[in-house]
Amino acid sequence: MAGEMRIAFVLFLAAGISDAVDGYLAKRFGMATELGAYLDPLADKAMLVSIYVALGIADAVPGWLVILVVSRDIMIVSAVILSWVVDKPVTLKPLLVSKLNTVAQIALACVIMAARGFEFDAAVAVMLLTALVTALTLISIAFYLAEWVRHVNTAEMGP
After folding, report:
1. Is 68 helix (H, G, I), strand (E, B) or coil?
2. Strand boundaries in 30-142, DSSP class E
3. Average pLDDT of the residues in 100-106
C-alpha cells in the first residue's frame, strides 16, 4: 500500500517459495499434520486476500475484482461454518477449478507487482489475467455452491 511494489513482489515471491518448500518437506518426510492441513490453506487464503485488498487500495486492481476474490473466500468459509452450526459438517476438497483459480490469482498479483516494481508495461497480461481470474472465480463459486447444496440435501436425506 506504500507503493513499494518491488519489495512487495520479492516478499510475495519469498512467501510463495517458502510455502511450496514447506509443503514439499511435509509430504516428503511424512511430517504433515492435521493442524497443518487446516492452517496451511487458511494461511494461503489470508495471504492472497491481503494482497488483493492491498492492491485494490493501491488502485493496482479494480475494486470489483477485490470484492469478487474476497467474497468467494468468505462464501466458502461461511458455508463450512454454517454446515457445522446446523450439524451437517462438510469437508470441501479443493476442486481443480479452485486450484487453477489460485494459480491465476497468484500470477495476476505477481505480474502487477513486478510490472509496477520494475517499471515495465504488462497491460495486456494484466487484462488477460484479470479476465481469467474473474472467470475462474465465478466458475469456482458456482461449483462450490453446487457441492455445498448437494451435501446439505444429501445430509437431510440421511439416517
Report:
1. helix
2. none
3. 94
- Per DSSP, which regions of the chain are E strands? none
- pTM of the predicted structure, to 2 decimals: 0.88
Percent of the chain with pLDDT over 90: 57
Using CB atoms within 10 A of its CB, is residue 52 exposed (0-12), middle (13-18) or buried (19+)? buried
> How many domains does the chain fold into?
1
Q: How far apart (Å, rounded) are the C-alpha atoms in residues 151 and 142?
A: 14
Whole-number Å distance between alpha carbons of 39 and 42? 5
Q: What is the DSSP letter of 60?
A: S
**pLDDT tens-digit profile of 118-154?**
999 999 999 999 999 999 999 999 999 998 888 888 8
Q: What are the backbone dihedrals phi and psi of residue 117, each rounded to the nearest 5 degrees, phi first?
A: -75, -35
Q: Which domain holds residue 144?
A: 5-157
- How many whole angstroms separate alpha carbon 133 and alpha carbon 100? 9
